Amino acid sequence: MTRLATASLAGTAIEFYDFFIYGTAAALVLGPLFFPTFSPLAGTLAAFGTFAVGFISRPLGSVVFGHIGDRYGRRPVLFASLLLTGIATVAVGCVPTYGSIGVAAPVLLLVLRFLQGLGLGGEWGGAVLLTAEHAPANRRGLWASFPQIGPSVGFLLANGVMLALSASLTDAQFAAWGWRVPFWAAGLLAAAGLLLRTSLSETPQFKELAETGERASVPLAEVVRDHWRLVLLTAGALAVGYAVFYAVTTWSLSYATEHLGVSRTVMLTCIMAAVAIKGAATPFAAMLSDRYGRKPLCLAGCAAAALWMFPMVALLHTAEPLLMFLGFLGAQLAFITMFAVVAAYLPELYEPRVRCTGAAVGYNLAGVLGGALTPLVATAVAHGEGPPWGVALYLTAIALLSLGCFALLPETRPVADPVAEPAAA
Asked: How far is the C-alpha of 147 from the C-alpha of 149, rounded, in Å?
């Protein structure tokens, strides 16, 4: 289990590094470089628009790779998704700017971001099922949470590279070539991740499905026909996690540097510190779900998010590093109280024959609802001199929506081993 969990964590960290590095670049430099004819606000919105495309393609990736996972095994998904995301990320670092090739530059950016999202849409389902389906029932929450640490590691790695470059280069150097370096580094990371995953074995439950001939012929058709309500509920339930995370890591970075005059270095440091603590807290929240259940932790995280959004925005608007960090930390801890749990929760909600497709589609649809729209909506409503209360209201509304969806989902914490049995949808 340690080897499997470590390999899942490492691969997920690499793929999320690829995905996050784009979000940081969109907040800092992509607007002026690829949309120079726009006003500063419109350029930022356009850059966040290309950022959102990655979320829109993630459900499609979950369908494509979910089909592979349910028909041919969880293991092939881990290789194909990592390879696709790595190639697309390196290519982003090679795209000429608008000043060199005109409108073709943002078009290429859009296509490559779409491919990034496609690969990441498959990664989560494969990595989570690899650990969840190998794990003992009474520790499934803990072991399945290791891939959920991966996004924190990927974010810290991506922003650590950006922070080092931002601190060591002039603004002109950073805009000219410095922002490209983290994208090029993705190639080396992807190669390391592929090497690490070569020794992984297929999960026992998929082997059993293959031996008994019970694999779904068209997994998506079964999910839509038999589990559509469950998919919609899980997408709505997880939307708040995406919204909170990207409000902190992407929108606040852009807002504070452009409107509050906070330096890139200070903002990246505050955000990274909060994400580091969130990553460290992940297995502890997951262990609580093994003892007290999945649903209570998710409801608690939603409630905490709903209560914290207005204080977070107020603390951000102070532009004081320590206060901003505390605001971000509260939001990240609310987020991980839910998302440490869902890596075990979602697989337990779906029957094995369609688990890779169902769990991944629900998870990535939530990304469209919460992650894709949040930087766009938050940037659009954050006007005026005072704190952007419209952003706090928007995030609170999503938290309440997710709270209602979690309330309608069943508890799945196993007594014996129900991850091998269909759960009531």
From this structure: 5
pTM for the model: 0.81
**Which residues are within 8 A (CB) of 217 and not within 5 positions of it... i.e. 6 or more apart?**
none
Cβ atoms of residues 62 and 361 within 8 Å: yes
- How far apart CA 160 and CA 20 sit, in angstroms, is 11
* Greatest alpha-carbon span in the chain: 65
pLDDT per residue over 231-262, tens digit each?
Answer: 999 999 999 999 998 899 888 988 898 889 99
Q: Dihedral (C-alpha) 393, 399, 402, 408: value to the nearest 10 degrees?
A: -110
113-141 pLDDT per residue, tens: 889 888 888 877 778 888 888 888 888 88
Helix, strand, coil share of the chain (percent; to 5): 85, 0, 15
Q: Within the chain, how many helices (H) and strands (E) appear?
A: 21, 0
Rounded Cα gap, residues 137 and 171, in angstroms: 52
List the Cα angle 121/125/127 in 5-degree steps: 110
pLDDT value for 409: 94
Q: Which long-range contacts (CB under 8 A, 24 or more apart) does 104-107 make?
A: 105/34, 106/34, 106/35, 106/46, 106/50
Which class for 7: exposed (0-12), middle (13-18), buried (19 or more C-beta within 10 A)? buried
SS3 102: coil
* Tens digit of each residue's pLDDT (9 = 90 or more) over 275-289: 999 999 999 999 999
∠ CA 32-38-40, rounded to 5°: 60
Centre a 10 Å sphere on the Cβ of residue 111 and count the other Cβ atoms it contains. 16
Q: Using an 8 Å Cβ cutoff, are 319 and 386 in contact?
A: no
pLDDT, tens digit (0-9, with 9 covering 90-100), for 369-400? 887 778 778 888 887 678 899 999 999 999 99
Sign of CA dihedral 412, 128, 285, 270: negative
Among 344, 341, 334, 372, which residue's Cα sits nearest to residue 120? 372
Sign, CA torsion 379/303/298/279: positive
Length of the chain measured in residues: 425
In whole angstroms, what is the distance from residue 223 CA to residue 344 CA? 19
Exposed/middle/buried for 2, CB within 10 Å: 0-12, 13-18, 19+? exposed
What string of DSSP letters covers 105-147?
A: HHHHHHHHHHHHHHHHHHHHHHHHHHHHTTS-GGGHHHHHTHH
